[in-house]
Amino acid sequence: MTRLFTAIDIPTAIQDSLHQLGREVRGARAVPADQLHLTLTFIGEVEDQRLQPIHQALAAIAATPFAIVLQGIGCFPPRGPARIIWAGVQAQPLLHRLHSLIEISLIPCGIAGEKRSYSPHITIARIKTPSGFDRSLLQHHAAFMTEEIPVKEFVLYSSRLTPQGAIHSMERRYPLTA
């Protein structure tokens, strides 16, 4: 069994700045810089014999390249004890279209889409002790914004869970060439 997800990679300089921001969160574990990405779809655990059909389905996707801008810092859940700190993404219809195309392409592979609506974000820290989280950090970084990040491909990752967190490995890259 292999645990899979699709994502958009972000530039190293932005990964580094997001990692530094995650390290500012008291009582939290910052996501390592090299593990920061924008998840498109979580596929989940799949049997090895389903990998090739998944690769073929993803390779057949025709989507237009676009750009994204990261903007704002928030938390999940938005009320009550926070568990996740994230960087948001400015509204981008082509990002949502790519997400939908991926989900639709995976249906013949026996992979059902998410029940909840897609909320694009990059997880930057996981809070260990929610009661100690100071929400003023969110206000302090409310103006966070990156330059445009060109999106010319998406990536299929495998993920291995460890006590220190998930370890992601790139499986394949899929260019956007509509």
Number of helices: 4
Task: Please count the beta strands (DSSP E, at least 2 residues each).
Answer: 10
Q: Measured on Cα atoms, how large is the radius of gyration?
A: 16 Å
> Outline, from the CA principal axes?
globular
The main β sheet shows up as: 4 strands, antiparallel
Q: What proportion strand?
A: 35-45%
Terminal-residue CA separation: 32 Å
- Mean pLDDT across all amino acids: 93
Largest beta sheet: strand ordering? 3-1-9-10
Q: Helix content range of the residues, please?
A: 10-25%
Which class of secondary structure composition applies to the elements? alpha+beta
Topology as H/E string?
EHEEHEEEHEHEEE
* Low-pLDDT stretches: none
Question: Would you write up a description of this structure?
Answer:
With 178 residues, the protein is α+β, with helices and mostly antiparallel strands. The strands form 3 sheets. It has a 4-stranded antiparallel sheet, covered by helices on one side. The chain starts with a strand and ends with a strand. The mean pLDDT is 93.
